[in-house]
Amino acid sequence: MVGRFAPTPSGRMHIGNITAMLAAWLSARSRGEGIVLRIEDIDVPRVVPGADRRIMDDLDWLGLDWDGGPSYQSRRTDLYAQILEDLRDDGLVYPCFCSRAQIRAASAPQEGDRFILYPGTCRRLSENERSARLACGDRHSWRLAVPAPGDPDGLVGFDDRVFGPQSFDVGADLGDVVMRRSDGLFAYQFVVSVDDALMGVDDIVRGRDLLRSTALQQWLRVRLAGLGIGSGTVPAYAHIALLDDPHGKRLAKRERSTDMGAMRAAGMHAEDILGVAAWALGLLDRPEALSAQDALAMFSWGRVRRDDVEIPPALLAGRHGSAGDGTGR
To answer: What Gene Ontology molecular function terms does this protein carry (predicted)?
Structure first.
């Protein structure tokens, strides 16, 4: 099996990102498998220059090594364009001329991960209407044509190693998701599915907010396999709890106090940061300093928590022996 690190270089990694990276590393190394590094820089306007190098430096400093890469999504756009064309030839994508405002006005709000289900407006256009609008140069995105709600072909199930059995109806729960945006950029759901299939990634660890996206990506991987891209087999999935600030908001890169730059500048050792991450995963009863190899020795998916975790700012305030107890080392 092959795992992966898949960071977005939109800024310095924060403690939530590190917790996910640690979980991915533990999952791969506990089974003696490899792990590849993929820099997910497909959303070019969000990329921060030099962030990729800082990500790799931080992973190396923490002792979270990898075996292949880095590969960069921004260098694979010709490949994505060809595969999208193959999907189009197979009738699996169609052009969408709707604006965001039109979609919001016509869509029912979704709970949790704020997915907005596309109402299918442009899917109902005739082939002549589509061709005429494309010929006129009308601005458009490309959407994946998933089965209608309730269609057995759209039912996806997988057994998550943290949250247990999962089942989704891609037509009812996700709808026709964008594969290429109207500004020409390829969408996350598309490129991640393509990359995981082509790289043979079959051990996927990430936040629980992507459970629904996993169903779509698995459905798409099966269709890609039909085009000779990957095997279409179901990977081993694990979705971990999210980390929140004291106000109950999910940690974000814009909150600089929890990022690697701030923590390293405050004098925290790699073992201190990994101890917080291991505690956040549920491997420790309280935060205390440990190495990646120490965490590996105690790791099992049965110990990983399901509930989201609040990260007190004091945990990330500076160097300590048992993280947070202020005893020093």
So the answer is: ATP binding; glutamate-tRNA ligase activity; zinc ion binding
Q: Indicate the helix (H) or strand (E) that contains 180.
A: strand 178-180
Q: Residues 43, 47, 53, 59: what is their CA dihedral angle, to the nearest 10 degrees?
A: -70
Domain of 119? 77-192
Return the CATH number at 134.
3.90.800.10
The answer to whether residues 187 and 81 belong to one domain is yes
The answer to whether 212 and 115 are in contact (CB under 8 A) is yes
Residues 88 and 180 in one domain: yes
Tell whether 159 and 256 lie within a shared domain: no
Name the residue among 207, 188, 193, 190 with its Cα closest to residue 235. Answer: 193
The CATH number of residue 259's host domain is 3.40.50.620
- Residue numbering of the annotated binding site for ATP: 253
Domain boundary among 192, 212, 228: 192
pLDDT at 245: 83
Binding site for Zn(2+), by residue number, is 96, 98, 118, 122
Domain count, the chain: 2
Q: Is the peptide bond before 70 cis (omega within 30 degrees of 0)?
A: yes
Residue 274 lies in a domain: yes
List the chain residues with pLDDT less than 50: 108-112, 320, 322-329
What is the model's pLDDT at position 182? 94
pLDDT in tens, 160-219: 999 999 999 999 999 999 999 999 999 999 999 999 999 999 999 999 999 999 999 999
In this structure, which amino acid lies at residue 261?
G
Residue pair 211/160 in contact (Cβ under 8 Å)? The answer is: yes
Q: Please report, in range form, the residues annotated as the binding site.
A: 4-8, 40, 96, 98, 118, 122, 188, 206, 253
pTM of the model: 0.91
